[in-house]
Amino acid sequence: MTDLPDFELYGFWRTSATYRVRVALNLKGLTAHEQVIDLDANEQLGAGFLAINPLGAIPALIVKGQAPLTQSTAILEFLDETHPAPPLLPADPHGRARVRSIAAMLAGDTHPLITPRVRKYLQTKGGFDDAAIKGWMTHWFGTGLAAVEKRLASEAATGSFCHGDEVTIADICLGSITVMARINKLALPPLPTIDGIMARCEALEAFAKADPLKQVGAPKG
Fold it and tell me: Which of 63, 71, 101, 141 has the greatest count of CB atoms below 10 A from its CB?
């Protein structure tokens, strides 16, 4: 008899936010049955999914018998609180605040500027062509990552990973931005500290399995 998955996850191969949840599930040794919401086909705007998340944004995590959980960072903290090993936040309050701050720089200040709904608005209302969209993405990814690089390179709390020598939510959020920059072939400024941290993250199975290009619906080759 096959074990049932722990959760149901609504996601899409290419999204930063779904990647974050996949990594966290992998780190916790949890499984989810993933329902693909094809953003390219606007499935997130269908009545069925809007009943799950009225914002029409993914991911959404379904715990049997409970209301849907949305917003990737809220889902990460839920998973950490309900499945505490391995912890994704430091034990001390200052450390937790630092990790949340770095995560917010990435998931709150950088990622929202390049989501599909923003790009679609720029194309349909702002007159952006493909080159302008790529320039927009390069600017905002570059600005956000350069700021994070400066912090990581200068703060004593940085270790093998963003905070110390264990993976935290900050590393998951960092990974979600860097993999999207790679997929979109963006030319970014030198980021030596981030590059080192990401090399260590992507050597871990939890990150490698979450690679967007390994997911259902991703382009082949």
Answer: 141
